[in-house]
Amino acid sequence: MKLMKITEVKAVYPNYRNVAPSWRTHFWQIVVRVETDQGIVGVGYGGGGVAGVEVVNKHFRELLLGKEIATTQDIKEAWDHLYSASLPYGRKGIAIMALSGVDLALWDLLGKGENCPVYELIGDRKKDSVRSYATGTDIEWYTELGFTAHKFPHRWVSDKDISTAIATADKARNLLGQKALIMIDTYMSWSFDITLEMSKSLKEFDIYWFEDVINPDALVAQAELRNLVKPTLIAGGEHEFTEYGYQEIARTKALDLWQPDITWCGGLTSGIRITEMGNDLNIPVVPHRGGEVWGLHLIVSSTCDDLAEVLPGTKGGNKDDLWIGEPYPLNGYISPTDGPGFGVTINEALLP
């Protein structure tokens, strides 16, 4: 066990314009770096854009300087301290997105200090590889790459969107086969009635889940929808924060499947707590963007479902080179690297 004292904490907002049209451009992701007296540096990924950077650099930093990190308990105590300190303006949103980046940097730091991957810090590795599903629009390419699960985006604009949803679902089912998983992400653009209509119109395509169908605060309405669209699941939770937010989801029974985003919900510490809660309630947990290292280490070492989201983009499109050493799916399955920490390094050329 190596005792490391924090000497510096800094968040930056990467130059995403250099990797356009990266999907990450639209997620306001920030990079957090934690330095120590041992020369070991942890790097994490959070959210909140320039506002998140200010939260880290102007508030969280002063609370972390001089803190000692040697165990996972130290990380959890740091999380609780930062959460409590940010209560007057936090609890959800940008403050927790910023906290996520700090938390992930601390887990990366501890893994490097112990010379082991983060999944070993969480617990015994339970999965060698994870089935991955491709999110995007290039279904032909995803089929070539060997994916057997696919999620396509479908925001509601007008009544004609029912026919386009049918056409896309039909194409996906024909290309991927009858045993493939097909999901739809509406990004909060459907209504209660539209969800019911879509459920009826898409019944023959055996949709596994509808994701983020309506306003995420409409928990009672989502709970009602669950019983009306079965066997399709109502999934969501990427826009919820911490185990405290998920306690309300659990209380109202709003969702069939939980999707915490590890870089937004409060980091790995929060993700572990949410996953444990879901396991106790027998609710499947599939982290949002779980194919990224931040969620992947949790999936292979916990009771999360054997399913990880990846965003391959389109064939021949630009790649996001912010993180060096990221794992990539092979024949529809993905595994984290065995390097210390999260096993990736930051591309310094993309940092301001």
Average pLDDT, to the nearest integer? 95
- Give me the CATH superfamily of the largest domain: Enolase-like C-terminal domain
As an assembly, this protein is: single chain
What is the percent of helical residues? 25-40%
* CATH level 3 topology of the largest domain: TIM Barrel
What is the topological layout?
Layout: E1 4-12, E2 30-36, E3 41-46, H1 49-64, E4 68-69, H2 72-85, H3 94-114, H4 118-122, E5 130-135, H5 139-144, E6 149-153, H6 161-176, E7 181-185, H7 192-201, E8 209-211, H8 219-228, E9 233-236, H9 242-252, E10 257-258, H10 267-280, H11 293-300, E11 308-310, E12 323-324, E13 333-334, E14 345-346
Parallel strand pairs: 5-6, 5-11, 6-7, 7-8, 8-9, 9-10
Antiparallel strand pairs: 1-2, 1-4, 2-3, 5-13, 12-14
Helix pairs in contact: 1-3, 2-3, 3-10, 9-10
Care to give the gist of this entry?
By secondary structure, the chain is an alpha/beta fold. It has 11 helices and 14 strands. InterPro entries: Enolase-like_C_sf, Enolase-like_N, Enolase_C-like, Mandel_Rmase/mucon_lact_enz_CS, Mandelate_racemase_N_dom, RHMD-like.
